[in-house]
Amino acid sequence: MFSWENPDDRVAIVQMNAELRHAQLELLSAQCATHQLRLRFKTEDLARFGQRDVLQKAIAAASGLHEYYASIEKQMPGPAADATAASPILSPEQIVKACACVLAYVRERRERYFPLGAPLDRRLRASMQPFFSPGLLDRIRVLELDGARLPNPPFYSDAQALGLVNLPPLAHMASLTFIDVVVFNDQITERTLFHGLVHVAQMQILGLERYTELYVRGFLRTGSHVTVPIETHAFALDSRFARKSRDCFQVEEQVSLWQREGRY
Q1: The three-state (H, E, C) secondary structure of 203-255, written as one string
Q2: What whole-number distance in Å separates Cα of residue 254 and Cα of residue 260?
Q3: 87 within 8 A of 220, measured Cβ to Cβ
Q4: Could you tell me how far CA 180 lies from the centroid of its own chain?
């Protein structure tokens, strides 16, 4: 068993948590893809017409992962949060206020972080060039917090008082996008940058106010930020980006398609 007092163990613990974050990202992508299946197709249709070998492999993988993580959960100290608690029903006025709070927060953070950010370096720009327009890549800035972490927004306490659970802790997120600046809690990687830039494209095409409203309403409806359609699309696209084949596609075109089809 690891001990934080052992210097060698501390190195191993840091590496373990880096690999855990990578596994979590892959699991979120799988969760988002499954959520899209759930929204579009009935389980009886999948059971009857889904490719049998693919279904069996997916079921076996999901069952094995559930057993593994459940065994870890049993050993975790302290009470586990109730991740299945239903979101409270807010009044229309409360939803409007929530959207306004999120919108003001995003704008304020943008003004704070944009002057501290830097344009993409040549290597990162080259890796993003096949997927995003030159205009978007020219405009954005990126910022690594270098040991600091993003704090939770001030409105989280009010949201929790209303009974909202599963608010994502910002310190545990790889990055957060504030209009045209992407702020990273950890070191920038191509995949986390790509994910952040998908949100830049979504904000640009949907408009910031509409993006914010869709995100808030999606969270209130699904009870988790990873199943908000705006987020599921970002995870689906970054999963596609991460494949070794790297088929090129234009993110702005994909976002515009989802907008036209009303999938957000």
Answers
A1: HHHHCHHHHHHHHHHHHHHHCCHHHCHHHHHHHHHHHHHHCCCCCCCCHHHHH
A2: 10
A3: yes
A4: 17
| Beta carbons of 225 and 234 less than 8 angstroms apart | no
Model pLDDT for residues 115-141, shown as the tens digit of each residue: 999 999 999 999 999 999 999 999 999
Amino acid at 207: G
Q: How many CB atoms lie within 10 A of CB 79?
A: 6
- The helix (H) or strand (E) run that includes residue 158 is helix 156-161
Look at residue 32 and tell me whether its pLDDT is greater than 70. yes
H/E run at residue 44:
helix 43-49
- Biggest CA pair distance of the chain: 56
Domain ranges of the chain: 7-75, 92-260
Amino acid of residue 115: P
pTM of the model as a whole: 0.74
Angle, nearest 10°, between helix axes 229-242 and 7-40? 120
DSSP 3-state of 4? coil
Q: CA neighbours within 13 Å on the CB side: how many for 173?
A: 19
Q: How far apart are CA 106 and CA 102, in angstroms?
A: 6
